């Protein structure tokens, strides 16, 4: 790729960043880094009615947590700033008027009432109303009015919008990096509004102007923008600008595979759809986030990369650097990608194993009051023994509580299975044996206790099951001798005697 690659992620600050938006940002980031390019963040806040306080900061925080920070954007390397469209609104009207001057756009003075009446008239005749070549000369605009009438309306301060003049009887031949060649009949296109009566541009005009001025080379965005591709190509042509290359990512589907994953699906089905927790500033309603639910950013990124893309190999686990190296936009699928909440847990389990024990111990201590005064190195050793069974830090207590406190009760089924007529006598002998061990290590414990069991010519289960029950309170957990070493001789003997006494 010879040109300087520049891509942009352009979310609207209307609420928290949906997981689909994170996937779009990720694919832009991977593409940029693959080609030594620039990843730009632009905030598309032209719709001020839907602006939500705090949403922009949330977007930036989410990208940073995901380890896919922007190279250029609000407050950072502002080479083509400003990067908020609301701060660029002085730019757009001149470009809209340039299109009018070139005959590619026109003023439209239609009121909401007149347009509603036109729609109802079409519906009454079994037709669909489309504002375009078919009827624009019958409506109130600068194409149907004389130049003098148009000027009078403008000078009188009448409300107007500026519409793009779609061509008639043409076939557009477009290209998408994912979907290939696309043909569009211009007769089915409507004359989209480019500039609104409130003095703000629509997305269509603003994003074209900004992409051009910011020298964006590739537009990688969601499939929902595919119907706008024809207009955007025509706008580039009307301005006489070189068009960027376009790629439209497949939809992320509900876990059932039917319909687009929405913000409501997470609450309904019990999983987050946002990277970070979001508190609605108006209602104080809390929406769950992957970070707060205990997911690692690397796990989420690895999972999202496979929603619509695959490397063409059997490999599933990728570091971010490996994703950058492997990423190819042409390997992105056209079909929608089903969101699988269990798969992201699978990824998180893997990344749990990759975490440093000390870091996990710190996170574990931070969320459990009972560990506040426990030495971090001890907690780290315990984590090392049980983390292979954990998917989240929040799982660690249930898997390791016996390292920090003696069992208060015993699992009923385990008790019935482990306790026999001679168990009390065996446990008493075992406690005495353990008390004689001077070199109290995992290896010595294993050699001594197994040798004693063998010498008594009894089955290992007759001792090992009640021993585990005494230490843990259930027939689960890591290697018994590791537990005994960790909790120490005195505590091990006390737990064995506690169980023996209660039999």
Write the layout of secondary structure elements.
Layout: E1 6-9, H1 19-34, E2 38-41, H2 55-65, H3 89-101, E3 105-108, H4 112-124, H5 147-155, E4 161-164, E5 171-176, E6 180-185, E7 193-195, H6 203-213, E8 218-222, H7 229-239, E9 245-249, E10 252-253, H8 263-269, E11 278-279, E12 286-287, H9 297-305, H10 320-326, E13 337-338, H11 341-354, H12 357-367, H13 376-386, H14 396-400, H15 412-418, H16 423-435, H17 442-456, H18 460-472, H19 480-487, H20 489-502
Parallel strand pairs: 1-2, 8-9, 10-13
Antiparallel strand pairs: 3-4, 4-7, 5-6, 11-12
Your description of this structure?
A motif ('KMSKS' region) lies at residues 260-264. GO terms for molecular function: glutamate-tRNA ligase activity. It catalyses: tRNA(Glu) + L-glutamate + ATP = L-glutamyl-tRNA(Glu) + AMP + diphosphate. Keywords: Aminoacyl-tRNA synthetase, ATP-binding, Cytoplasm, Ligase, Nucleotide-binding, Protein biosynthesis. A motif ('HIGH' region) lies at residues 11-21. The longest helix is centred in the first third of the chain and has 16 residues, at 19-34. Helix content is 43%, strand content 10%. The protein is built from 20 helices and 13 strands. It has helices spanning 19-34, 55-65, 89-101, 112-124, 147-155, 203-213, 229-239, 263-269, 297-305, 320-326, 341-354, 357-367, 376-386, 396-400, 412-418, 423-435, 442-456, 460-472, 480-487, 489-502; strands at 6-9, 38-41, 105-108, 161-164, 171-176, 180-185, 193-195, 218-222, 245-249, 252-253, 278-279, 286-287, 337-338. Helix 12 (357-367) packs across helix 13 and helix 18 crosses helix 20 (489-502). It is elongated and about 110 Å long. Strand 11 (278-279) and strand 12 form a beta hairpin. It has 503 residues and is mainly α. The protein has a three-stranded antiparallel sheet with strand order 3-4-7. Strands 1-2 form a two-stranded parallel sheet. The chain has a two-stranded antiparallel ribbon with strand order 5-6. It has four domains: 1-72 and 250-354, HUPs (Rossmann fold); 88-205, Alpha-Beta Complex (Glutamyl-tRNA Synthetase, domain 3); 356-401; 412-502, Arc Repressor Mutant, subunit A (Orthogonal Bundle), CATH 1.10.10.350.
């Amino acid at each position: 790729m010879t040109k300087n690659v520049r891509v942009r992620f352009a979310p609207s600050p209307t609420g928290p960043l949906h997981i689909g938006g994170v996937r779009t940002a990720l694919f832009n980031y991977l593409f940029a880094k693959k080609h030594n390019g620039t990843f730009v963040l632009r905030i598309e806040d032209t719709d001020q009615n839907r602006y939500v306080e705090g949403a922009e900061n949330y977007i930036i925080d989410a990208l940073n947590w995901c380890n896919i920070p922007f190279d250029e954007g609000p407050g950072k390397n502002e080479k083509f700033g400003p990067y908020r469209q609301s701060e660029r609104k002085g730019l757009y009207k001149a470009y809209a008027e340039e299109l009018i001057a070139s005959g590619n756009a026109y003023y439209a003075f239609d009121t909401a009432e007149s347009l509603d009446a036109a729609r109802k008239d079409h519906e009454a005749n079994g037709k669909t109303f489309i504002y375009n070549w078919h009827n624009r000369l019958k409506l109130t605009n600068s194409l149907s009015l004389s130049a003098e009438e148009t000027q009078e309306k403008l000078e009188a301060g009448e409300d107007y919008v500026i519409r793009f003049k779609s061509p008639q009887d043409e076939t557009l031949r477009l290209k998408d990096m994912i979907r290939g060649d696309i043909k569009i009949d211009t007769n089915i296109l409507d004359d989209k509004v480019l500039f609104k009566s409130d003095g703000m541009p629509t997305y269509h005009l603003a994003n074209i102007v900004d992409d051009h001025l910011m020298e964006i080379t590739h537009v990688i965005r969601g499939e929902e923008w595919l119907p706008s591709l024809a207009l955007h190509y025509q706008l580039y042509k009307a301005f006489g600008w070189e068009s960027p290359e376009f790629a439209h990512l497949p939809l992320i589907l509900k876990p059932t595979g039917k319909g687009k994953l929405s913000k409501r699906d997470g609450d309904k089905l019990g999983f987050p759809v946002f990277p970070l927790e979001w508190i609605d500033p108006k209602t104080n309603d809390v929406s769950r986030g992957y970070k707060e639910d205990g997911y690692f950013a690397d796990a989420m990124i690895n999972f999202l990369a496979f929603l619509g893309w695959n490397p063409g190999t059997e490999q599933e686990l990728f570091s971010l650097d490996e994703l950058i190296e492997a990423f190819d936009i042409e390997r992105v699928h056209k079909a929608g990608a089903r969101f699988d909440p269990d798969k992201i847990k699978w990824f998180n389990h893997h990344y749990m194993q990759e975490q440093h024990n000390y870091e996990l111990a710190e996170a574990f201590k931070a969320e459990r009051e009972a560990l506040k005064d426990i030495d971090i190195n001890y907690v780290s050793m315990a984590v090392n023994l049980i983390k292979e069974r954990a998917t989240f830090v929040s799982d660690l207590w249930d898997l390791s509580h016996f390292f920090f406190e003696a069992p208060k009760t015993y699992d009923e089924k385990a008790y019935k299975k482990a306790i026999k007529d001679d168990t009390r006598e065996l446990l008493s002998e075992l406690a005495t044996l353990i008390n004689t061990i001077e070199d109290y290590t995992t290896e010595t414990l294993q050699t001594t206790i197994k040798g004693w069991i063998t010498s008594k010519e009894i089955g290992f289960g007759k001792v090992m099951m009640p021993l585990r029950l005494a230490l843990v309170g259930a027939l689960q957990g890591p290697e018994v001798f590791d537990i005994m070493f960790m909790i120490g001789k005195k505590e091990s003997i006390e737990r064995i005697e506690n169980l023996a006494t209660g039999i």
